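Input set for joint prediction.
Command: fold jointly, output tokens.
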Amino acid sequence: MRSITLFAPATVANVSCGFDLLGFALESVGDQMLIRENNVNQLRITKIEGQMLPMQTEQNVAGVAGLALLNQLNTKQGFDIEIYKKIKPGSGIGSSAASAAGAVFGLNELLGKPFSSIELVAFAMKGEALAGGAEHGDNVAPCLLGGFTLIQSYNPLRVVSLPTPEALSVVILHPQIEVKTADARNLLKQQVSLKKAVRQSGYLGGFVAGLFQNDYDLLAASLRDEWVESSRSVLIPAFDEMKAAALASGALGFGISGSGPSVFALCKGVEIAKKTAQAIRHVFDKTAIPYDLHHSEVNPQGIKTL
Amino acid sequence: MRSITLFAPATVANVSCGFDLLGFALESVGDQMLIRENNVNQLRITKIEGQMLPMQTEQNVAGVAGLALLNQLNTKQGFDIEIYKKIKPGSGIGSSAASAAGAVFGLNELLGKPFSSIELVAFAMKGEALAGGAEHGDNVAPCLLGGFTLIQSYNPLRVVSLPTPEALSVVILHPQIEVKTADARNLLKQQVSLKKAVRQSGYLGGFVAGLFQNDYDLLAASLRDEWVESSRSVLIPAFDEMKAAALASGALGFGISGSGPSVFALCKGVEIAKKTAQAIRHVFDKTAIPYDLHHSEVNPQGIKTL
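tokens >
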């Protein structure tokens, strides 16, 4: 029976200026998965280590995403999926996306690559919908494609791979509190003023240009969120203080990773990232809430076979 | 007395996907201006040919923009401005922007370039405010800088020069009807849904990426306007029919130039542009409204001295 072992990276979605559209993959945080052919004509989740998650295929994001792919092919071939979960569910760094994207990537490899990357993104979004109540692609796209990705359009689905300036370095702080994606979505205002919409749109356009031009000043000026951050940051203890500390340490920007509670800082260079990590840690220690702190480069490749 | 003669190009603002943010300069349509030192310590509009426009400095967009620059310098030097107007005011291809940008560009040259391009954009926006009731920079920026420009932010003002894919070719149809910028602004909805704001933002991000990647499919997919076009296009006779004809002719996109009434089509290559021009003309001829039809390349340089 053929099998594949892979690494599915954690991802940061929204990235301040690109709500539901922009995301990037992390290098040093991610899940391992093993996918193996079976002869029972079923897709099964046979092992989950590291976290308590549903084992029923239809209740598991990897299962749902995998079924979407297999149903499209109309194949009888069955597979077993083992998930070695390192990314904590509900952390805001794409835990469900890694499982969903890992499943469809692995199945596609074992089946002889019948599907394109963009089709895999669409299948993986079916898994995301199970977790978050809405199909969004700004975690699964960078998980599958690596680097920075932009969802140019959801309907029809079109994903653009963006360049990653070399010096970018990331700090993630994950407070050990629970913020469900669906709850975070309920906090959003459903209407924005045209003026604010225009401003926010300019930041996303500027950020995209900054990635192409290696313009760190432009990236910093564009890492702004006038749509979502003020509503959602109330769920994250010490958010404003951490943000001030990160920017004072020289970070290009600081914001909520996905729907939180994780926060991220994008920095130019490892030294500033280290300094920023120290500064954020110093602030958050005062809350007495447990947390994980990650330092990572941007992962240019996305999912890789091991 | 030193003088400068210059060409200030017409410009297309909004460009479907970048309301108030995105614009580009035209090659074959524009005004000529002559700016000459005088010894009366005043900025004067001494001649306007081609159109009826106010001669009083404070009532003329070139005068207002020029005064903004001179006041900042606190200079006593006076200048005379002659405007040879080829761009019809109210046409929607940056007539006021050309006058305002031309004035500040010429004054800056004669004064030894005390100001940066971005400062010139800010001065020229003062002239635009006189014409349109709001300071917007998506015409003056491409007029001054050439090519495609993005206003990443108005406050602080930050303008990004974007690359221009070589094959881009433009068709402009200017119906001889009057649409005042201020009236067109009053037609806008002041609120948009977050969903629509996100979608539109993705189109702008995609368009910016498309310019960097020479990806004409991506440009075509991104030349969409869900914010403004449906409200404003009712002012433009046969808009929907022209749009359908342009897209059927292979145009990448078709939309309102600025606040109208001019419409533009962006095309890949001169041949498709010619075919598109014919198709639009054919549709608009049925309205029996007089019009101008321009074909132009994108102007990479912006204002130039003659």
